[in-house]
Every structure is written in structure tokens, then in C-alpha cells.
Amino acid sequence: MLTVAEPHSDPTTAHEPRPLLVAVREASSVNPALEWAARRARDTDRALMLVHAVPGADLMPPGTRYGPVVERGRALLQAESLRLEARSPGLRTSTYLHCGDVVHALLGLSAGASLLVVGADRMNTRTGVFQGSVAIEVALGSAAPVLIVPLGHRGGGQNGTGAGHVVTGVDGSAESYEALRRAAFEANRMRTPLRVVEAVRPSSPATEARTVSTSAILSALRTAYPALMVSWIVDTVHAPARALARHSRDASLLVIGRHGKGARAGMGLGSVTHAVLLRPPCLTLVIPAPNQIHRRPGV
């Protein structure tokens, strides 16, 4: 059952504020993930670590001088760090250059982070084939929550999330309750309504147990966040992934739980989460299993 965090407390806060991590894939004048992470770090008074990876030396063509490759990576990080600090006085940045797979770097650093921010995986519009799977691999292996920023996302409003509502789905699992807990916190912080989506098969009767569970959850949310507006949608038409996408079209943020083991070897990702992350309808926050989230004692 849901246990809601105290109002005004960040579910990812530890004794010492953990930094935000953001993946910097390449130099670009438009980088929605980087811009969102910088705003969030500034507004929450957290340090921001910029992470970039260059190919390992063993992957370079024969005869390639590796030193300049590394220097270009360092120069990219330094330029982005200086640019962000100049635009946002008070923002504290650090950089991390990794020689090898960027997924390995992000997963290795995730245990010390409050949040990882990555751009959505790119898809070839002509072939429909995805070019890489960094976002999905990071989401299913990270020890910290992962925020995935869709391609072409244009920030607006608080932390660049716009003025829409926050959406989450529930299915009775511990992961979905953890996602609901975080969604309620985010909606309250953003002062925007929370929309809870429950996809139910048409043949499934409205059992007394499910009704009681829904009432208990709504009561817990009202107690923790008295000013929060909550709507509960029971979708009997669409499959869970389609229901979440449909009801998140005009949302600021979608919060979903990760169903899987969360280990690099043999890790798994729930089919609903995987389907949503292939084409995230809006900013999408993936929450690890409850026992993997960094929390302050008592929260």
C-alpha cells in the first residue's frame, strides 16, 4: 500500500544533497536534456555533473591519435560547463569524461546521484529504426531515478516542464506505488494537478478490494498534500502503455515505475515501461524499485 512522503520533502534527498547527472552526447546549440537539468539543479540548489563519453582506444581506427580525441571531449565538457554557469549565476557544475561506453559511465555514477537526465533515444524517421538505446539502458539499470527528455522538447514554466499536469499509472505493484508517491511530490511542488491512470480490462469486475484500495490511496494523498488536485481515470479501452501515452499527451510530466531487477547483467524492463520509453509522450521520470532509491531516514 502507498505511504506518501511528508509534504515539502524531496524523496531523493539524503544527508548530503546528491548531484544531478546529465549526459552530454555532442556539441549542440539546442540540447533539451542539458537545459532542463541545469534549470532543475539551479532551482533545487544542487550541483550538476556533466557526463560525456568518447570511444575507447580499442575502438578507434588503426593509426588514430587518441590524445586529440580525449582533448576534444574535455573541451566539449568545459565549454558546456562555462556556458551554463554564465547563463545561470549560482549554478555549480562539474564534469566527468569517460573513455568507453556512456551507459557504463552513467550506471556507475548513478549510486551517488539524486537524478539522471538523458535525452530520448533517436529514431531514423525514414526506417523507423532506433539509433542507439542509451536512454532505455540507463533507465533499466540506474540506481537513481532517470528523467528522459523527448526530442524537440521545449521547456516552459517551472523547471521547463510547462503548465500541464503530472500523470502516473497504478497496477497494484510496489513499483507503481513508488511512482505514485513521487508523482504526488512532483505535482505538489509544481502546483499542478495529478492524474492517476488505471488500465483495467473490460471483463474485470470492479472488485470491492480495488475500490477500497483506491479510496485509501486518495485519502493518503489528501492527507499529505491537502492542496493537491487529484483525478483518477479508469481506462477500460486501452492497454496500459497506450492508456498512459493517451492520457499524457498534454502533461508536463509522466512518472512510471521500473519493473525489473535493475542489474546490468540479466536486468529486465517491464513491457509497459519499455513501450512508453520508445516514444515518450512528454518528460518521463522512471523510478527504480523501492529498495534501490536513496532516501533520507524516515521519508
UniProtKB/TrEMBL annotation:
Q: Which CDD domains match?
A: USP-like
Superkingdom of the source species: Bacteria
Provide the transmembrane region boundaries. none
User: Coiled-coil annotation: which residues?
Assistant: none
Residues of the UspA domain: 18-150, 165-288
Against SUPFAM superfamilies, the record matches this protein to:
Adenine nucleotide alpha hydrolases-like
Under InterPro entries, the record lists: Rossmann-like_a/b/a_fold, Universal_stress_UspA, UspA
In the record, the note on similarity to other proteins reads: Belongs to the universal stress protein A family.
Q: This protein is called what? A: UspA domain-containing protein
Its source organism is Arthrobacter agilis
